[in-house]
Specification:
This protein is an alpha/beta fold. Helix content is 33%, strand content 19%. The protein contains 17 helices and 19 strands. The strands form four sheets. A nine-stranded mixed sheet has the order 3-2-1-4-6-7-8-10-11. α12 packs antiparallel against α13. The longest helix has 17 residues. The radius of gyration is 23 Å and the shape is globular.
């Protein structure tokens, strides 16, 4: 996360082939379901609080291997999503820039005894149903929009006992969610911080809907910096995106939080998801933030596709670019947020002007593949390659379009296949987990322009997965086949025998 004080603004990120990212070297990230990873983009679980102790996860072979790979610019150990971002959009727009502030402060290849940073996403408790969000990060979406049962609370006494040992060694903690001030687990961590690490730098990413006596109590105990998640500055725009919120009340709370942070000498900033739904008031939003003294960071929305400017038809991207250029006089007074305006205009202009097949992150990508390829690609040979692995001889197929929605799902994969059609691709993993068990491992073993092969563990089942860009005779792909083959693990078979 880019911070608003001068000391922690990221330096220029290194070029590919040098240090890939510092995340695995310095931090642990905790998810609402108990899975622990190096960051929010990683595909490599480092452990699970259900079964693993905190010390074992930090010292474990998975984290060390990931850190060693990244130290030499190798993204193959669970970091393929960032590798794809860098390839498509360039390094400055990629997630590793969030951790570039550690350059010169730690040796990425060193084995640190203690993490320096933790990201706590201990609960998906949230009162909003934002357009660009999903049920993994919002309990309200999970129940009302997706119709799924709540995520069980998984962070128990053992985890918090382990945490006592780690907190005094950290430099920084970040709380996300869900809405952090609705998660009871976060209050347990804050109580520990007040006792064991009162000077620990703490940042809370909040939707600013909560201002209660409990919140006020913890603010008196733990000095906090705040990042306000705001996606509009007029009621009609904001409340259409952040469903369930009242803008007037939120802005009142923003002022309260900002006053508390500044009284404690802590920074405040704004995180803004710039999307087709709010880009029309981007100048107005930046001017409001400028008047408050809030630096604005932009979250690049990649999915769902209908919330991503870069994945619109190119004619629409050009219309947005031209409208922003024509309104440049509206932001002439920006100082604090001038660089934010300039950077987004450059980004959107690059999408608008690039020729077909060369648009970084634009609508001419499908999942992590470019739509334009070198020639036709048929999933059939890849299906044949996976079939011998499957214990039942079945290779299941899910077809995902450039809108990030499931267009087809084999009924052999899930009894919910008819329901999955039209759902976000993230729901596929949940359907597989419902049948085979939680995913506890994922590793890409072959990474190409047309086919990506991976291995995974779902419960007691080994899996082989293939992502195939379905290209026509022109080399064009509008959708991707996800092929899945399963078999019980050797340990399961031995136990059964």
């Amino acid at each position: 996360m880019r911070r608003s004080d001068d000391r922690l603004v990221p330096v220029s990120i290194r070029t590919s082939g040098d240090v890939g990212c510092y995340a695995a070297a310095v931090q642990l990230r905790f998810s609402p379901n108990g899975v622990v990873m190096a960051c929010c983009r990683s595909l490599l679980p480092l452990g699970n609080v259900h079964t693993d102790r905190l010390r074992a996860m930090w010292d474990g072979a998975s984290r060390r291997r990931q850190a060693e790979h990244l130290a030499r610019g190798d993204f193959s150990a669970g970091c393929q999503q960032c590798e794809g971002e860098i390839r498509l959009e360039g390094r400055p727009a990629s997630s590793p820039t969030n951790y570039a502030l550690w350059e010169g402060r730690v040796d990425p290849a060193a084995v640190l005894e203690w993490p320096r940073r933790m990201e706590f996403n201990l609960s998906n408790a949230c009162n909003l149903q934002c357009l660009q969000c999903d049920g993994e990060s919002s309990s309200a979406i999970r129940v009302h929009r997706e119709g799924r049962p709540p995520i069980p609370q998984v962070y128990g006494d053992e985890f918090f006992d382990d945490l006592r040992e780690f907190l005094p060694h950290l430099d920084e903690v970040v709380f996300g969610g869900g809405e952090p001030f609705l998660g009871p687990e976060n209050f347990r961590v804050w109580d520990l911080m007040a006792e064991l690490a009162p000077g620990l730098e703490c940042t809370v990413i909040t939707n600013a809907t909560q201002w209660t006596p409990r919140v006020q109590r913890v603010l008196e105990q733990v000095p906090m910096a705040f990042v306000f998640s705001l996606d509009g500055i007029t009621p009609s725009t904001y409340e259409e995106i952040r469903k369930g919120a009242d803008l007037d009340r939120v802005l009142e709370n923003v002022d309260r939080y900002a006053a508390v942070a500044r009284a404690n000498g802590r920074p405040v900033s704004v995180n803004h998801c710039l999307m087709p739904q709010n880009v029309h008031e981007f100048p107005q939003f930046l001017n409001w933030a400028e008047s408050k003294g809030f630096p604005v960071d932009i979250s690049l929305v990649r999915s769902p596709a209908w919330c991503s400017i870069g994945r619109l038809p190119v004619e629409e991207i050009r219309r947005i670019r031209d409208d922003l250029v024509a309104r440049a006089d509206e932001v002439a007074g920006l100082v604090l947020n001038r660089a934010t305006w300039d950077a987004e205009l450059v980004r959107i202009s690059a999408w608008a002007d690039a020729p077909d097949g060369e648009v970084p992150g634009s609508g001419r990508t499908v999942m992590f593949f470019r739509c334009q390829g070198a020639g036709p690609v048929d999933p059939a040979p890849v299906r044949a390659e996976l079939r011998p692995f499957a214990s039942d001889g079945l290779v299941h197929e899910v077809v995902v379009g450039s809108d990030d929605l499931v267009h087809h799902c084999d009924e052999t994969l899930s009894p919910d296949a008819p329901y999955l059609t039209g759902q976000p691709v993230t729901m596929v993993t949940k359907a597989v987990e419902a049948r085979y068990g939680a995913m506890t491992g994922f590793e890409v073993v072959r990474n190409g322009d047309d086919v990506v092969l991976a291995t995974a563990m779902f419960g007691s089942h080994e899996a082989q997965l293939a992502y195939v860009a379905r290209r026509d005779d022109r080399g064009w792909a509008d959708d991707v086949s996800i092929l899945l083959a399963f078999r019980p693990s050797a340990g399961t078979l031995a136990a059964a025998g």
